[in-house]
Amino acid sequence: MNQHPCNTPAELAQRLAAWIGLRLHQAIDGRGHAVLAVSGGKSPVPLFEALRAQPLEWSRVSITLVDERCVPHDHPDSNTALVRTHLLQGPASAATFVPWFDELPDTLDDAALQTLADAAGQRLATQPWPWDLAILGMGEDGHTASLFPHAPGLTQALHASGPVAWTRPLNAPHARLTMTLPALLATRELVLPLIGPAKLRVYQQARLSEDDTLPISLVLHQHTTPVQVWLA
Ligand SMILES: O=C(O)[C@H](O)[C@@H](O)[C@H](O)[C@H](O)COP(=O)(O)O
């Protein structure tokens, strides 16, 4: 795990956008294509706005998600809407975006969520594996992607062989689809931007021990996938 301290959130967004742009350029240079998976939430917006302006062969980049809320794409909480609004603009509009579903079933019982997760996994299987980069976020409860502590579905999401599982967060809205932990750790590199003292405290706590009550700790304590932690 490498740490990249920044003085301000604006500096982090600018420096990390350039760093991600270089990584994607290297992937395109080496393999002809790049696959980037991104998180939702609020803090990625400045990063997305800096990243979309990076000089890159965006037509050779596929973008998808590390998780999705089970809401329609026109819902304000949709990660698909977030990426379309803030990242797939300007030069980055030439990228290929892979949403995790198009429509939702009328009911979202566990069986329906499992069907959605399996179908999303098949969509993601169309992208050349291993993906080049996944941008993670973290909540103040130590969740990352939609691997929420104590959530129904978490155990399956931590150990499933497939790329996508479902969870029902206890303290966050909407049923979710999430990349499984094995899928996240199968990417070539992970990026974790953390902004603000509250998240820094959770991060420091997660570095002390590996425990699924702080799912981000399972990412920080593994040794198979490089993790780049950006702090401001
Ligand atoms: O869909 C999501 O909500 C994200 O994937 C989630 O893991 C997010 O990264 C954290 O909840 C932090 O969210 P903020 O950036 O809003 O703090």
Automatic annotation (TrEMBL):
Pathway: Carbohydrate degradation; pentose phosphate pathway; D-ribulose 5-phosphate from D-glucose 6-phosphate (oxidative stage): step 2/3
The organism's place on the tree of life at top rank: Bacteria
Catalytic activity: 6-phospho-D-glucono-1,5-lactone + H2O = 6-phospho-D-gluconate + H(+)
A GO molecular function held by the record: 6-phosphogluconolactonase activity
Keywords: Hydrolase
Glucosamine/galactosamine-6-phosphate isomerase domain residues: 8-223
SUPFAM superfamilies, per database record: NagB/RpiA/CoA transferase-like (SSF100950)
Keyword Hydrolase: yes
EC number annotated for this UniProt entry: 3.1.1.31
GO biological process, one term: pentose-phosphate shunt
InterPro entries reported for this sequence: 6-phosphogluconolactonase_DevB, 6PGL, Glc/Gal-6P_isomerase, NagB/RpiA_transferase-like
Record PANTHER family: 6-PHOSPHOGLUCONOLACTONASE (PTHR11054:SF0)
Similarity section: Belongs to the glucosamine/galactosamine-6-phosphate isomerase family. 6-phosphogluconolactonase subfamily.
Purpose: Hydrolysis of 6-phosphogluconolactone to 6-phosphogluconate.
Name under which the protein is recorded: 6-phosphogluconolactonase
Organism: Hydrogenophaga intermedia
Gene coding for it: pgl
